[in-house]
Design a protein that fits this description.
The complex is a heterodimer. In chain A, 42% of the residues lie in helices and 16% in strands. Chain A is of the alpha+beta class. Chain A has a 5-stranded mixed β-sheet with strand order 3-9-8-5-6, with no helix packed on it. A 4-stranded mixed β-sheet of chain A has the order 2-1-4-7, with no helix packed on it. In chain A, helix 3 packs across helix 7, helix 8 packs across helix 13 and helix 12 crosses helix 13. By secondary structure, chain B is mainly alpha-helical. Chain B has 2 domains: 248 residues, no CATH class; 160 residues, no CATH class. In chain B, 62% of the residues lie in helices and 4% in strands. A 3-stranded antiparallel β-sheet of chain B has the order 1-5-2, with no helix packed on it. In chain B, helix 5 packs parallel to helix 8 and helix 14 runs parallel beside helix 21. Classes of the chains: A alpha+beta, B mainly alpha.
Chain lengths: 330, 457
Amino acid sequence: MKFLADRAEQRAIIALIFIVIGVPVIILGYQFGIRPRLNTIRTIDIVAAAPENGGFQPAAFEVNAGETIRLRVSSPDVVHGLAIGPGEGWDFGIVKPGEVKEIEITFPEAGRYTLYCNVWCSPSHWRMRAAIDVFGDALATTPDPIIERLTAQEINIDAPHPAENVPAEKPSVTRGKTLLAEVQSSLPPDVLSAEWRQSHSPAEARALLINLDDAEAWDVVAALWLGDADPVQLDESQVLYAKNCAACHGATGNGDGIGAATLIEQGYMGDGPAAFADPTTMLGASSDILYGKLRRGGMGTGMPGFGTVFTREQSAQMIDYLWTFVFSTE
Amino acid sequence: MQNRFELTQYRWVKKMLQWRGFQPVLMLFTLFFFVIAILTGFFGTPAGSHNFGIIFVWIVWWALLMIVMVPFFARLWCTICPIPAPGEWLQRRSLIRRRPGKLFTLRRRWPRKFRNIWMQNFGFLAVALFSTIILTRPSVSAWVLLGMILVAIILSILYENRIFCRYVCPVGGFIGLYSLTSTLELRVKDAQVCKDHKTKDCVTGNELGYGCPWLVFPGKLERNTYCGMCTACLTTCTQDNIAINLRPFGADLLVEKGRSLDEAFKALIMLACALLYSAVLLGPWGWVKDWANMDTLPHWAMYAVAFITINLLALPGIFWLTAAATRKLARLDIPLKKVFVDVAYSLVPMGLIGWIAFSFSFVFVNGSYALSVLSDPFGWGWDLFGTRSFPWTPVLPDMVSGLQILLLLAGLVYAIIIAYRIIRRRAATDNLAWRGTLPVAGFLSAVTFTFLRLYIG
């Protein structure tokens, strides 16, 4: 019996040592020592925390063009959305608190990409970004002509550009198209130029249409601004807007998104996020100004720059979509 | 003994319980999970719903403790609890083997003024005060668990036996009190045998095993409160006089011996905490939860003052008035303090039922998290058993309220009956006893109504 008792004691001691020392060593050793070596492809562990809790950690990492990597993302606090831009349309959906999301991704081209959250996660949601530097043979990049134009014209894109005169009711693109076909020949050449429209506001165009009554003139302006817009691209921009802009600017463009009040409270937004559905705010601005603001962000405001998130084409299409808040496409 | 069914009459049960390795093996088993809980607390995801430590300690363990272990198996948790294990093994310098000689401690004497459960009362209040933080933040939870082990070790170095379990453990206090209701007990078969037995091996220990680490003499055991169910006395008893019995629910509630003010306060604190937890965690007042979560220090300070006041002054004060009314209506010729202590034992089943009802509200709703954390205890993306992606699945969410109503109403009726039976032992007639029961019934009904308001609106 004594022998058995001693055997039991020995086994119990071994079990105790295993539990108190062996278990932690095995678990931590596996997770931090062995597991990274077992990965067949390079794995980058990313903690996606609300910006107040540190944001994306790490906030920057490097990969090689053409290299497939695995991003293992976990959220310690709230639901975050995961997307990488610009281009490629990488939207990986949400990661819930405590969940681990694994994403395998190959960057085809060198350049700087942005991992960003596209779900309203906190009052500082707009800060939640991480830089991804992709090395390789970089494609030659050309300067953005719109930004160059804005710079050359020394236009202050942060200043308000209110329209002095606004339509009594929402101008209609459909009505304007019909009218445009009738009056096109009598219109000033400037308003018919896409390039001119890009750098001028709808209010400036309206001021040139002196032979039409106010409602007709605004309908024609609506048709000039959105008559050639691709409905499919408008739909795509609407999705991007809902994910990236609506939290502050509101789903209906009234500047009343879920984060608007907090941003005002925190002093980031002055009177609040821009209300795209407000004709006074919108009709005095040109597409160039809106584009510049979207790409660069607002200086001293909570408006983040989307130049590292959206492609130039996506940005231009987004501006077209913004016009739909003041011009009816129905 | 009446209405008892002796489980130790079965040879294999008795043999198993007499084996000295019985408790250490179970403790090693739970120690394994304890170590995992601490590791996940320190190294795992801070998201409580995906952290083993939070889910298994505060949902699985808590639900098992309150819904199964305490009502049916008394201090079974104390039998298998790993917290005192390291200290006890250090004292004995062995896990299973009976080492000859004295325990390895400094052999200090535990102060007489602390030989009660007041420390456990205040310890529980302290934990309860920070509970919204402890229950949701894995690292804090891990520090609490680790801290309890360290305190138990320190006390085992200073004092002999399980001073931590008997007088300090904030959990052990209420487990002991609620074990009065339990359907399991450890008792002697014949008290006279113990009385006549000179060497009292169950207290002093012998070559078969150690003396009772809970400082209990089984020969005088009439209530479950302080028996840790470690079965050491079964091992050491040379008279074959120890039995583990099944018995009716609430059998100890009418035992007068051992009733005390500290236990009465424990009953009140547990009831107040059940109500406060329900209000803070389940109630519609988000600001209360924010205050409890320390959104600002002044808010938390106000919450703390309110919490302590309700626990130590308001509810006991109301119950003191209730006891005074009972004393007057039942024409009891005993001190008010004695009446207060006596009738407080009717709060024991009420409190236990309240905690079970409270536990239902989260175990049915959030219990499914256990499957995913079992596969991925740290939230590192592991999938040990293929259940990592098991979705959050509330179980019978439509039935929870119904179950809570049934439980609380049954608990109310049972508690009133217990109150009547306690008072009947002091009152001269049935009529006076019923009259004396009225204020207590009113108090219990108000508590039940408050629970129902919180659970079903």
